[in-house]
Design brief:
The complex is a heterodimer of chains A (116) and B (115). By secondary structure, chain A is an all-beta fold. Chain A has strands at 5-7, 10-13, 19-24, 31-37, 44-50, 53-57, 64-68, 74-78, 87-94, 106-107, 111-115. Chain A is built from no helices and 11 strands. In chain A, strand 7 (64-68) and strand 8 form a beta hairpin. Chain A starts with a strand and ends with a strand. The model of chain A has no long low-confidence stretch (mean pLDDT 91). Chain B is built from no helices and 12 strands. In chain B, strand 10 and strand 11 (104-105) form a beta hairpin. Chain B is globular, with a radius of gyration of 14 Å. The chains are: A mainly beta (116), B mainly beta (115). Chain A binds chain B through residues 31, 33, 35, 40-45, 48, 56, 58, 88, 90, 92, 94, 96, 99-101, 103-105, 107-110, 112, and chain B through 4, 33, 35, 37, 42-47, 50, 52, 91, 93, 98-108.
């Protein structure tokens, strides 16, 4: 089975620009979540998508938005980039399985965003 | 709000020896899950071990085991017979229930393995 793939792996933007990051979920997974990991810190939850609807959001402003497509892949969009948006953005997918605790997240390798 | 605290920014261990990473968490929930993830330089988070709060028995996965102290809200990870490939950043994480996928992570502990 294929894992979670993210693109691009690295990118550089300037302040005020917009960026789109992409994620292909693991085969059989229908839920995607996004995390922001600043340098030297643990990941912070941005939001989660299930069946193309956002169904959970962390403490991030509205300029962070997302989409999930019918094939369960996902995009993270960030508008009006700020210097503090520089981070590793991780995508994770899961199967939304039954109440067994088996719905463990599978992470991608992330997209490293640098805002200048 | 749930918080996860890892008090050891860095730990060093000799190859073949044992190292224990500390994690404490704060929650008022009774149904939750705890995880340890490993993040090597390749950046991909890899699940090491998980523990369901309702289970009293400590989880074990090969050389990795946890000491889950629910009353103390403590969840430490023991790596036995350390190998060079264990060198990575280790994150403790918490999740409420089984259908809330949001993970709350600690700040991480960098593990160095000396040959």
């Amino acid at each position: 089975e294929t894992g979670v793939t993210q693109s691009p792996t690295h990118l550089i933007k300037t302040r005020g620009q917009q960026v789109t990051l992409r994620c292909s979920s693991q085969s059989g997974h229908n839920t995607v979540s996004w995390y922001q990991q600043a340098l030297g810190q643990g990941p912070q939850f941005i939001f989660q998508y299930y069946r193309e609807e956002e169904n959970g959001r962390g403490n991030f402003p509205p300029r962070f938005s997302g989409l999930q497509f019918p094939n369960y892949s996902s995009e993270l969009n960030v508008n009006a980039l700020e210097l503090d948006d520089s981070a590793l953005y991780l995508c994770a997918s899961s199967s939304g399985a039954t109440r067994t605790g088996a719905n463990v997240l599978t992470f991608g390798a992330g997209s490293r965003l640098t805002v200048l | 709000a749930q918080t996860v605290t890892q008090s050891q920014p860095e730990m060093s261990v000799q190859e073949a020896e044992t190292v224990t990473l500390s994690c404490t968490y704060d929650t008022s929930e009774s149904d939750y899950y705890l995880f340890w993830y490993k993040q090597p330089p390749s950046r991909q988070m890899i699940l090491v071990i998980r523990q369901e709060a309702y289970k009293q028995q400590n989880a074990t996965e090969n050389r990795f085991s946890v000491n889950f102290q629910k009353a103390a809200k403590s969840f430490s990870l023991k790596i036995s017979d350390s190998q060079l490939g264990d060198a990575a950043m280790y994150f403790c994480a918490y999740r409420v229930g089984s259908n809330d996928y949001k993970l709350s992570f600690g700040a991480g502990t960098t593990v160095t393995v000396r040959a």
